[in-house]
Amino acid sequence: MRVGFAGTPEFAAVALQALLTAGFTVPLVLTQPDRPAGRGMKLLPSPVKALALQRGLPVAQPRSLRLDGKFPDEARQGQAALQTAALDVLVVAAYGLILPAWVLATPRLGCVNIHASLLPRWRGAAPIHRAIEAGDAETGITLMQMDEGLDTGAMISRRSLTIHADDSTATLHDRLAALGGEMIVAGLRQAAAGQALTATPQPAEGVCYAHKIEKAEGTIDWSLPAAVIERRIRAFDPFPGASFGCQDEVVKCWQARLAPGVPGSAPGTVLSAGADHLRVACGDGALDLLQLQRPGGKRAPVGAFVQARPGLAGQRLA
Fold first, then answer.
1. Which residues form the Formyl transferase N-terminal domain (predicted)?
2. Which of 11, 31, 41, 149 has a CA-to-CA distance to 118 between 20 and 30 Å?
């Protein structure tokens, strides 16, 4: 079976590695163009491209696949690469580009997406973040036969995972990525054995969208309930990070736990500060901040932060 692959971040690279380990032939990899990153802002390949080059796989990086779009020459080059690859199926995982109808129709078995939610809940760009932020008890992976809608295709298979009370997007991402790799290998082995990949339409009920995470969302609003802020701290780890202002510094908080509040305390007020916590009043309840990061520094337990700032109790955080 000739399996094309379209993906960009580490989540997708895990799936590509699973396909290669399982012995599938991958004659073409599509990934987004190299992006500037790091302090030097040097152009760096995506995790998928880095893996593809390591394994000697052909790579195409069109900025768009729309033949009538802004980059028609690149789209035509992508079209030629897909046609030459003569794919049985194109596996898609967090690619980041819209696939027009001609792409969906090119592989013999169409395009199969590895989506990190239990569809139809959390269609869209940030399903892992939004599931944690919303306080969902579980999430999972859906293999989906792609159509022209936004994650609206029929479902081939679904498997769930429990969201633990201490899960961040980083930890949940890793478990979901591994599950996605297992599921796509199992599904394609079934197809390679001649068994049809049956797909079930998504139900009309329960649809919601996981909108892209904006950097501004990371600013902590202390007027919100403590439980909501705590979930956001975990949801925005590693990006964009939850942050607050303290003594003219913007500090990131990476870990917190629910704590009892003090009636009448203004949101953002430091209720107490010790070697193992910084307790802050919220709109409902309070939070003990446990792991912080100063500008230019690294993540560290809260004790050093508190020790360097005597008299924090009673101050208001921004």
1. 6-185
2. 31
pLDDT digits 0-9 by tens, 136-184: 999 999 999 999 999 999 999 999 999 999 999 999 999 999 999 999 9
Domain edge (last residue) among 161, 195, 210: 210
Q: Which of 162, 192, 210 is the C-terminal boundary of a domain?
A: 210
List pLDDT tens digits, range 175-185.
Answer: 999 999 999 99
Residue 136 lies in a domain: yes
On whether 117 is known to bind a ligand per the annotation, the reply is yes
What is the model's pTM? 0.95
Residue 316, in any domain of the structure = no
120 is in an annotated binding site: yes
Kindly state the tokens that stand for 80: 């030629």
Cite the DSSP H helix spans in 255-313: 302-307
Q: Is the Cβ–Cβ distance between 150 and 198 less than 8 Å?
A: no
* CATH code for position 290: 3.10.25.10
